[in-house]
Amino acid sequence: MNKAVKPPRKFSACPHDCPSTCAVEVELSPEGRVKRLFGAKDNTYTAGVICAKVARYSERIHHPDRLLYPLRRTGPKGSGQFERISWDEALDEITAKFRAAEEKHGPQTVWPYYYAGTMGLVQRDSINRLRHAKGYSGMYGTFCTNMAWTGYIAGTGSLTGPDPREMALSDFVVIWGTNAVATQVNVMTHAIKARKTRGAKIAVVDVYRTETMKQADMGLIIKPGTDAALACAVMHVLFRDGHADRDYMAKFADVPEELEAHLQSRGPEWAAKITGLSVKEIEDFANLIGTTQRTFFRLGYGFTRSRNGVVSMHAASCIAVVGGHYQYEGGGAFHNNGGIFKLNNSKIEGHELKDPTIRQLDMGQVGRILNGDEEALLGGPPVTAMIIQNTNPMSVAPEQELVKKGFAREDLFTVVHEQFMTETAEMADIVLPATQFLEHDDIYKAGGQQSILFGPKIIEAPGEARENLYLLNELIHRLEGAPLDAHSWTAREHVDWMLHASGYGGLERLERERWIDCQPEFEESHYLNGFGYPDGKFRFKPDWVNVPAPNVGPMGPWQQLPSLPDYWETPEKATDSEPYRLVTAPARSFLNSSFNETESSLKKEGQPVAMLHADDAAALGVTDGDVIALKNARGEVHLHAEIGERVRKGTVVSEGLWPNKSFINGNGINTLTGADQVAPFGGMAFHDTRIAIEKL
Ligand SMILES: Nc1nc2c(c(=O)[nH]1)N[C@H]1C(S)=C(S)[C@@H](COP(=O)(O)OP(=O)(O)OC[C@H]3O[C@@H](n4cnc5c(=O)[nH]c(N)nc54)[C@H](O)[C@@H]3O)O[C@H]1N2
Ligand SMILES: Nc1nc2c(c(=O)[nH]1)N[C@H]1C(S)=C(S)[C@@H](COP(=O)(O)OP(=O)(O)OC[C@H]3O[C@@H](n4cnc5c(=O)[nH]c(N)nc54)[C@H](O)[C@@H]3O)O[C@H]1N2
Ligand code: SF4
Ligand SMILES: [Mo]
Questions:
Q1: DSSP string spanning 38-99?
Q2: Distance 229 CA to ligand 3 centre (A)
Q3: What topology is assigned to 162-334+523-546 in CATH?
Q4: Domain boundaries, the chain
Q5: Ligand 3 atom showing the smallest separation from residue 39 Cα
Q6: Which of 200, 259, 418, 606 reaches 20 to 30 Å from 344, CA-CA?
Q7: What is the pLDDT of residues 41-94, one digit of tens each?
Q8: Residue 419 CA: which ligand 2 atom is closest?
């Protein structure tokens, strides 16, 4: 019998908003359907491993609910009533409506809105070229990275760091504020390798017993938002016990003596009261750090999604300087190496067309903006037209009551370009079908690994789904945006130009090699030629408003930021009437709100729950599985209680960005989260929410 010849695997890169940016291989059926995805074995960071949800990608790409045709709303907003129209009709209508809005209120009434649903630079960022070509309102991206990046860069002066693969060469891996098993599985690959080959220890600092913590030798469950207190106590112990590297600090840090004096009063007893840990837990953790040169701090995003998150990140990164860990292979503090790639994206975004005087509206405040909040509108005209790509704000943005009200406005014209009928798409006037990553060309760069990768188009899109670039170029032409050659380029032309302009050869090379390893030499990665500031010194005492991080000016209560690492109590602390703190951590089988439409992910996750400590549950008279209300001034969410010892008393964890309709009262978890701006450069404090609980 003849055995069918297996077609060779195609290569690509995972497009999702995940620090790992895996190099993937795609197995196609002879008919050209996606069967399964695998991690590329020869990419040294991916190392043959990808997460389960992306391995099952056939389910998402061949999903029966994919959007296939342009749609026009026929019923009331959010009714789900649409009629099929052609692309031409859709583009004509958008053009007419955007023109009319502009005539009434000026171009800044149109607000192009996007995020990182795809991390491909062409398909993600081209929307900024439409924005600049038309003088539409700017968007300040605040969903995710602001606190983490600002906090890290505050110390080091740059968003770079040790080679993430060096985790495998470490003797002590500290996984801090990231649930890597769920959110970036490759961290575990390298950490476990260090354990197997070198006997390395693994510690996890989190606010509940995560799957990552279950794999650790040392699990520290702290009260949310108290990481800086833990970091201070660790540094106190390093100074106290002779583990501080004074020679290194004399050369590479700004004010080591001042820091040492400041930390005198911030020892383990002090930190134990704040963090809820025992003195022994803190001493043991600090001792292992102090006696292990190759301590690798893998600093995540989760612990920065608090109103004091910038201070927490900065404080944690300081430990690796006090201990001198940065000097050693397998040592130092790593958060994100986005700063190593230096890709020139000026043509994708149309930088030469940008008017720097145009307002930058805070994406996290979309609810306030659509409800006419003058402060959030920065004194400009109301937003009356939007085009949305790569994000699902009806689910993922804070202050959901306001977001829902805003998108329901009859005088708001909304275009949503999507792969699925998300809850945001349901609110649109025009819905357009989008391609998925294997259906278009794009270039990807990682934040948690060190490669630039190419993801070519390898299958045809279903129905009339079109790539983001197509829509944007069409609109720029129809709306007669300011001219630029790049308005007519294909994705491959953009990638080729970008690679040439950035010194990486061209597309031909990248396509042949599949990825380019951009990790700098050891000395540079470990800051042995100096940190990113002009004097080469790490800042224990940053000049907060001048930290060289992406920002649109100081905001939030930035004047109150502590000048040296410290525990900084910020506004939303527990009260008698709202005594619990809610953390809205990611779910393993969803990626933000993506995959919350696939059957296997929904099955694995079950239903939305709130994890409560047994003592809290007893005090509330709640038993496992009861329906409870989580409430605060922003709204109310009804879901089931899950009682156990995974969380501390006073902490409540609810995993996952579920569809709002999965909750008993139809309100998603972001009904409870706030959109106030975190100091000093904004960002949303998704894990910092004060609530009351009521048994229903
Ligand atoms: N499966 C899955 N993967 C994902 C995502 C997803 O939703 N699901 N999201 C993707 C995106 S957009 C991002 S930005 C990354 C984020 O990935 P991470 O860096 O892992 O950040 P978070 O997901 O915000 O939270 C991670 C952990 O931080 C903990 N945490 C919360 N508050 C505190 C605190 O005060 N102190 C400490 N020490 N820990 C705290 C949470 O309990 C959680 O376990 O993951 C990406 N990958
Ligand atoms: N409560 C709470 N809220 C959170 C968080 C949290 O931890 N807790 N995390 C926050 C974080 S870190 C982030 S990054 C945000 C992320 O939130 P979002 O950016 O909204 O991410 P997703 O929910 O994955 O939605 C991305 C959407 O883009 C679509 N998409 C993907 N690729 C393409 C494409 O090529 N073209 C088009 N047109 N569409 C595409 C997908 O179908 C999907 O619906 O959520 C934030 N919200
Ligand atoms: S771990 Fe992250 S980058 Fe890798 S396949 Fe999964 S979602 Fe994509
Ligand atoms: Mo994110």
A1: EE-TTSTTTTT---HHHHTTHHHHT-TT---S-EEE-SSTTS--EEE--HHHHHHHHHHHHH
A2: 32
A3: Dimethylsulfoxide Reductase; domain 2 (3.40.228)
A4: 71-139+342-440+463-513, 162-334+523-546, 580-695
A5: 5
A6: 418
A7: 999 999 999 999 999 999 999 999 999 999 999 999 999 999 999 999 999 999
A8: 42
